[in-house]
């Protein structure tokens, strides 16, 4: 397990939420709590430092961690938030999750951390069918590598992962953690599930 003192976590909440009619996804209430609260509760126990990557509603997000904003213009996607976190972290590892996975649990996070190998630069969650690159652990030494990738005009997170020394980490035993809420329909479906939210 990576030592907590050598791990910074970032929760990605900087998108435009275009599929959620522009509402700030991380702050939408789910069973009376903002969605980001579920993710923050889990990851803050695992990391020595917690960043929230956000570009609006800064004061509200500060309740959950230190807010960092994109230095790049024009909403360049999750990689902009990841780059800011890599450049801001003072640890060797960065743990990354999106704000819209309220069923994330500590056991799955432990599995991700325990499975990361020292000879790898990125460990990315896999559900048994495909990778989920917004759920991963990255060595912070890749900051300049990501600067160069973005400077080349690329924006796809999965492509950046695949161009590096990465490891797929099988989290198929925890399918619920991959339930991410991108649309009002996803949100309503989640509320109708017989699911207990901590």
UniProtKB/TrEMBL annotation:
It catalyses: Mo-molybdopterin + GTP + H(+) = Mo-molybdopterin guanine dinucleotide + diphosphate. GO terms for molecular function: GTP binding; metal ion binding; molybdenum cofactor guanylyltransferase activity. Pfam families: NTP_transf_3 (PF12804). GO terms for cellular component: cytoplasm. It comes from the Bacteria. Keywords: Cytoplasm, GTP-binding, Magnesium, Metal-binding, Molybdenum cofactor biosynthesis, Nucleotide-binding, Nucleotidyltransferase, Transferase. Monomer. Belongs to the MobA family. The N-terminal domain determines nucleotide recognition and specific binding, while the C-terminal domain determines the specific binding to the target protein. This is Molybdenum cofactor guanylyltransferase. The lineage of its organism: Bacteria, Pseudomonadati, Pseudomonadota, Gammaproteobacteria, sulfur-oxidizing symbionts. The gene is mobA.
């Amino acid at each position: 397990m990576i030592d907590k003192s050598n791990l910074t976590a970032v929760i990605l909440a900087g998108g435009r939420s275009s599929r959620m009619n522009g509402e700030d996804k991380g702050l939408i209430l789910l069973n009376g709590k903002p969605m980001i609260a579920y993710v923050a509760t889990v990851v803050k126990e695992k990391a020595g430092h917690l960043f929230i990557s956000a570009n609006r509603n800064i004061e509200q997000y500060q309740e959950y961690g230190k807010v960092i904003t994109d230095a790049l213009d024009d909403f360049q996607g999750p990689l902009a938030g990841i780059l800011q976190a890599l450049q801001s972290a003072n640890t060797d590892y960065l743990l990354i999750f999106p704000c819209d996975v309220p069923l994330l649990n500590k056991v799955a996070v432990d599995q991700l951390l325990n499975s990361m190998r020292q000879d790898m630069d990125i460990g990315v969650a896999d559900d048994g069918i495909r990778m989920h690159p917004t759920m991963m652990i990255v060595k912070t030494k890749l900051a300049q590598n990501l600067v160069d990738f973005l400077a080349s005009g690329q924006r796809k997170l999965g492509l950046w992962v695949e161009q590096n020394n990465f490891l797929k980490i099988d989290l198929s035993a925890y399918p619920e953690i991959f339930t991410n809420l991108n649309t009002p329909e996803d949100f309503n479906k989640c509320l109708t599930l017989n699911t207990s939210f901590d």
